[in-house]
Structures are given as structure tokens and as C-alpha cells.
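User: C-alpha cells in, sequence out, please.
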């Protein structure tokens, strides 16, 4: 029994250490783009029945509260997004896109919205919170590539898996970063995939 208790404690400590380490990596990437002085927005609020997306949302809100004592000054779903209202409430500062598993061509409405945001705000920091990526259509990859390559900055993903992910990332003109890499300076669009699937 003592051995089992020690094993359980070791597993728990290991998992907590992993979670803490992942949190620190994400924080290292995002921290340079969050200011105490500037407001921020989060778009694509998950008004859906998937409890996983709700948990991700709560994590995003908790991250901002715990690390920066901040809350979003503008939040919207896809269906009630207003560029004018966002600009009124957040005239400067970053625009975050809710994370999850809809980057690519499975959940087209979310990808269309993401690309529309990037095109609508060419001079704003657009920060994609942790996402998984999946594309089936080469045509849709090319469309996403065109949006990402519309200026000199690129999406900057931090991923968990090595070369396979790197090939996919490079195919859609995203700049792959090693585990320790942080975001680039200037207007940066940051994607931090949780996992990346492809065929």
C-alpha cells in the first residue's frame, strides 16, 4: 500500500510539473504582448455545447487574471462580432482568438472568421491562442497561406512534435519555432497548437 501511495504521488507530481511547464512556455510566448496599460479583446467566444471549449475558455480567462490581473475589454462570438465595437472598446492593444481545435478546414466557419480577422485588422496584433491544426484540402491550405503571407510577419506556432509538424507548418507558410522559442517582435500573429493532426 505504501508503494502504491508513493507511486500515485509521484504520478501526480509529474503531471502537475508537466502542466506547470506547459503553462510557463505559453506565458513566455504571450507575455511580451500583454500590457497592464493596454486593453485587449478575445473573439470567437465558444457559445457551443462542447464542454471542452468551455474549459479552454475558462483557462484563458484564468490565465489573464492570474498572470496579469486583467480581463478582456471586448468579447464576442462569431455571430455578434462587431469590428466597430472592438475598435471602440479596444482602440489599441492585442486581439486574441479563442483557442481549441478548429484551425484548418474541419470547422470552416471558425477558420473563415480567423482569416477575416487577420484581413480586417492589418495593423493590429492578432494572437491565436493554443490550437490544433488540421487541413484536408490543399486549396484551403493555399487560401490560409495567402492570408498568413499578406505581410512580412507570419504565424508563429510552438508545437510539441518535431519534423512532421514542421512540414505541415512550413507548407502553410507558418514559421516553426523550437520549444524554447518566443514570439517575434513587431506585428505578430501567434498560434500555439496543442496538437497538430494531418493526413
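Assistant: Sequence out:
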Amino acid at each position: 500500500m505504501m508503494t502504491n501511495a508513493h507511486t500515485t504521488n509521484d504520478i501526480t507530481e509529474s503531471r502537475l510539473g508537466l502542466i506547470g511547464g506547459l503553462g510557463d512556455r505559453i506565458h513566455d510566448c504571450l507575455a511580451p504582448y500583454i500590457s497592464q496599460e493596454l486593453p485587449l479583446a478575445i473573439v470567437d467566444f465558444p457559445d457551443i455545447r462542447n464542454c471542452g471549449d468551455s474549459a479552454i475558455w475558462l483557462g484563458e480567462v484564468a490565465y489573464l487574471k492570474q498572470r496579469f490581473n486583467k480581463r478582456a475589454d471586448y468579447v464576442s462570438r462569431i455571430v455578434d462580432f462587431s469590428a466597430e465595437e472592438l475598435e471602440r472598446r479596444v482602440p489599441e492593444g492585442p486581439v486574441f482568438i479563442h483557442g481549441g481545435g478548429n484551425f484548418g478546414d474541419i470547422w470552416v466557419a471558425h477558420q473563415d472568421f480567423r482569416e477575416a480577422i487577420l484581413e480586417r485588422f492589418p495593423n493590429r496584433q492578432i494572437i491565436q491562442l493554443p490550437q490544433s491544426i488540421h487541413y484536408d484540402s490543399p486549396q484551403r491550405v493555399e487560401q490560409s497561406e495567402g492570408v498568413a503571407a499578406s505581410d512580412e510577419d507570419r504565424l508563429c506556432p510552438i508545437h510539441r512534435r518535431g519534423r512532421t509538424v514542421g512540414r505541415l507548418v512550413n507548407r502553410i507558410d507558418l514559421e516553426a519555432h523550437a520549444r524554447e522559442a518566443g514570439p517575434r517582435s513587431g506585428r505578430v500573429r501567434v498560434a500555439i497548437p496543442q496538437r497538430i493532426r494531418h493526413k
